[in-house]
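[Structure tokenization] protein backbone as discrete codes

[Encoding] learned vocabulary of local backbone shapes

[Begin record] amino acids and matching fold tokens:

___
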Amino acid sequence: MGKFRLVVACKRCGREFDTGRRMDRRSFQRGTLAANYHTCPHCGTRETYRKADYLIREEPPRY
């Protein structure tokens, strides 16, 4: 099972950035992911993100 890379779009500047979080599909579907703080590396704004805010990027399988 592949891992997802969780990405968000900054609520201030709108640029996407990688949150550093990784999880599999099942964990993402079951998780609540409420009130997670992330700091935008582009503008420095720290905001709260919910599950609906995450953009999913699949990581290629590692061999």
